[in-house]
């Protein structure tokens, strides 16, 4: 049967957008290399034209430069076409990726919506309000228990506030006296330290008495000691 009708040929898969874009980029790189080579050759011809005198030689160089310039213009046109095609392919690829992202987003949102609906079925507003009321009641009951446990025993309720303030002031006065008694006498203000009789020092002499005690020699009428006159030997 295969000999008569032949075998069905396998169809090659169509290229993807990424493959087509990669191929266009390679072709564009090749054209750019050709344009760079032509630019280098045109620069050489330009220098030759400057150095060559007007005449047949200069015209020949100009003719070759014009031929290379035409090739460059042709390659530049091809490069512009390749760039335009590459840009279109990139736009198509961007749109395709955007559609895929939208599909994935929709799938994720559908799954989240389904889970949210299932969760909401287990929650009811009435149940939540009832639970909140119960929690408030439990908190109030706990506060009452704490207050009950914190009551004081054997404390009279009919205490006079003025009497309590009077006792507090007397207590503060007693504490002040105790504090002053603990301080040594020599540290108390406006009081001189008392010395024992054995440690008391005599009063410092003044005037002629002081001079007499400092200089036990004979003193003159003003209290100063007299200096003996020495005989002057001639």
TrEMBL record:
Pfam family, one: Snf7
Presence of the UniProt keyword Coiled coil in the record: yes
Family recorded in the similarity comment: Belongs to the SNF7 family.
PANTHER family xref list: CHARGED MULTIVESICULAR BODY PROTEIN, CHARGED MULTIVESICULAR BODY PROTEIN 5
Keyword Lipoprotein: no
Name of this protein: Charged multivesicular body protein 5
Residues that span the membrane, as ranges: none
Top-rank lineage group of the source organism: Eukaryota
Positions of region (Disordered): 1-28, 176-234
């Amino acid at each position: 049967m295969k000999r008569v009708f032949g075998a069905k040929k396998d169809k090659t898969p169509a290229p993807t957008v990424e493959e087509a874009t990669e191929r266009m980029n390679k072709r564009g790189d090749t054209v750019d290399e050709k344009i760079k080579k032509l630019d280098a050759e045109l620069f050489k011809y330009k220098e030759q034209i400057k150095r060559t005198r007007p005449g047949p030689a200069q015209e020949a160089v100009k003719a070759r430069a014009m031929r290379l310039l035409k090739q460059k213009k042709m390659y530049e046109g091809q490069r512009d076409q390749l760039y335009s095609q590459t840009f279109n392919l990139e736009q198509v690829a961007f749109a395709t990726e955007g559609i895929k992202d939208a599909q994935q987003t929709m799938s994720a949102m559908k799954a989240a919506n389904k889970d949210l609906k299932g969760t909401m079925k287990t929650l009811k507003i009435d149940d939540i309000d009832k639970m909140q009321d119960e929690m408030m009641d439990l908190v109030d009951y706990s506060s009452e228990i704490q207050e009950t446990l914190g009551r004081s025993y054997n404390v009279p309720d009919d205490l006079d506030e003025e009497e309590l303030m009077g006792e507090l002031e007397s207590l503060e006065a007693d504490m002040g006296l105790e504090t002053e008694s603990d301080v040594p006498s020599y540290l108390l203000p406006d009081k001189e330290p008392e010395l024992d009789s054995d440690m008391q020092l005599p009063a410092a002499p003044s005037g002629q008495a002081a001079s007499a005690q400092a200089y036990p020699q004979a003193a003159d009428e003003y209290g100063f000691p007299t200096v003996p006159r020495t005989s002057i030997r001639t």
